[in-house]
Amino acid sequence: MKIRVSAVQYHLHTIDRFEDFVNQCEHYIKAALEFDTEFILFPEFFTTQLLSIKGPNGEALTINDLPPFTEQYHETFTRFAKAYNVYIIAGTHVVNVEGKLRNRAHMFYPNGKVVSQDKIHITPTEVHEWNMSKGDGLEVFDTDKGRIAILTCYDIEFPEIVRMAKAKGADVIFCPSCTDDRHGFHRVRYTSHARAIENQVYVVLTGTVGGLPTVDFMRMNFGQAAIITPNDVPFPPKGLLAEGEINDDMLVTADLDLDLLYEVREKGSVTTWRDRRTDLYTDWK
Q: Per the database record, which ranges form the CN hydrolase domain (predicted)?
């Protein structure tokens, strides 16, 4: 079985109203559907674009003003997923949970179902500047194309959490990210390749590009989408099915062959998942 996925390099720029955000998202969705894609991934924190809309008195909005957009965000992507019959991993959006901010990824199903995964590992900037709180646990999600997990940006830098996702049956890890410089970008990119090799899974990665001059900590972005495979003979030599142009407004699309993934796990040049030494280190059930 194959899954066609598209990853959006979302261009952040100043907008005047919520409808501008809706129109930009629909543009990417329509572009992806021209390639008959089945899953569309948007980046982490892409809804911070809404903070470039001026407040009622012309003031700049802050991260605490983002949760009130949650209902509109849900309605918009639920409508898109149903109308276009596509799975949408709509990046992350900041929500309020019992008075605490959470960085929450959402997936919208074609049948109207909505699931979510809170970011589990929180960066120092998220903690100290935005007062974000950690997610409580890991979920995996069944679709009619297989089981997937959503791990956001910093999460992919921790081998244990991806091992848990694989142990729960996830074959594809969707990783929405947001990085502001080359160092952050390459941390996420390199560890995405490592996680794909260690667990023999696909990783679909994307990030924000552009910038928001009036939104603190979103003024600059450095991003590039990539669709990453294990490094073995049936796959491309660099473990890379597709990648975008750095910092360009675009999307990338590729097919994930799940049967090939299962075959490599059983009789690949290396069988990293099967050969893990659970007699020496903890495995995840």
A: 3-258
Tokens, residue 117: 């995964």
Domains along the chain with CATH numbers: 2-267 (3.60.110.10)
Would you report the helix, strand and coil content of the chain in percent, each value rounded to 5? 30, 25, 40
123-164 per-position pLDDT tens digit:
999 999 999 999 999 999 999 999 999 999 999 999 999 999
Nearest to 119 by CA among 131, 109, 134, 129: 134
175 is catalytic: no
pTM comes to 0.97
The per-residue pLDDT for range 17-55, each reduced to its tens digit, is 999 999 999 999 999 999 999 999 999 999 999 999 988
Q: Pick the catalytic residue: 25, 153, 175, 178?
A: 153
- Separation between Cα atoms, residue 207 and residue 38, nearest integer Å: 19
From 119, 145, 157, 178, active-site residue: 119
Whether 153 is a known active-site residue: answer yes
Residue type, 242: A
44 is catalytic: yes
